[in-house]
């Protein structure tokens, strides 16, 4: 039996009647296609997702879709817990939770002792920001393109604790990494901030920031670097040791296609003992010199964490480099066709060194809310990038391509854009 969209939905209906999932039912592991097919057979990979075939989804930058193996893992863990709660939670699921954490550490190139599972990128940023013990007049440097979920904690500390917040505007079309670094030089002069907090990929334009160079720049000024990695994990290879950052926080539910409410937090080993725990549930755990001391709780959503482990398996079997190559191929196809539309203004970088599979565009004629709504009415989902919470004018919409998108979908999107613009 091939486990596809139809059989999965049929199974879900059967489960609702039966009152719960049973091992060996429609989710029989011998019947499951539990690894993506790679190479030129991307259609087989797309078949692992339950996305509505009548819809075109180009907003993985906000939330991804879980493939069938991930949903199976979540359901299996939930079944174990509900069949015998304490045994299911502590005996059957707990080892898989720890395995997911080890896999996550391997995925981003750190030691398991330096990584803890969170519920989101935002939670990870809050844990670090509050755990550093920042004092009045400590300077924190961010960019004008940070997501509100990553900027809000700094705004709060600015108003409540007297932290000095400095915003740097990166160039729209950088020609080199040094051009971006120069923006930080001009904004700071000779000042030595306490922390630099930047997005690895800007959610507004999809620009990839030179985080390795920024780590060197920050450390030269005796500052720490925290990277908002909401987008790269699951989209491209990430190696926190190569980057040289002090902290890296990421999302599980975007490009990694894990369950909502999952994330990663990396803290370099030398900083672990100085971080004040975000949550305190066990004094013994707090005294340990590993990342779990930051947010350890007695009871968590282990079904989601088990699903995160399955998402990492799914992603790893394809390969991060292959995912990026595929996704960039789709966005290039999109960009090449849309450049022929005179009504469109490109806001994303054109240089390959800074380009990602997210493109931000603006209509020269229509308000982009109108474009967004017209596409939505035609069952096409993109991201509306509005000016709320931003320190730069955008009024744009963003297209993101991922492993469940295809050339044919790109062509349909462009054709629809010709109709609505």
Could you explain the architecture of this structure?
The chain has 421 residues and is of the alpha/beta class. It folds into two domains: 103-314, 3-Layer(aba) Sandwich (Aspartate Aminotransferase, domain 2); 320-420, Aspartate Aminotransferase, domain 1. The protein has 14 helices and 13 strands. The protein is globular, with a radius of gyration of 22 Å. The model is unreliable at 6-35 (pLDDT under 50).
Rg computed from alpha carbons, rounded to a whole number of angstroms:
22 Å
pLDDT < 50 stretches: 6-35
The beta-strand count equals 13
The CATH architecture of the largest domain comes to 3-Layer(aba) Sandwich
Task: Spell out the CATH superfamily of the largest domain.
Answer: Type I PLP-dependent aspartate aminotransferase-like (Major domain)
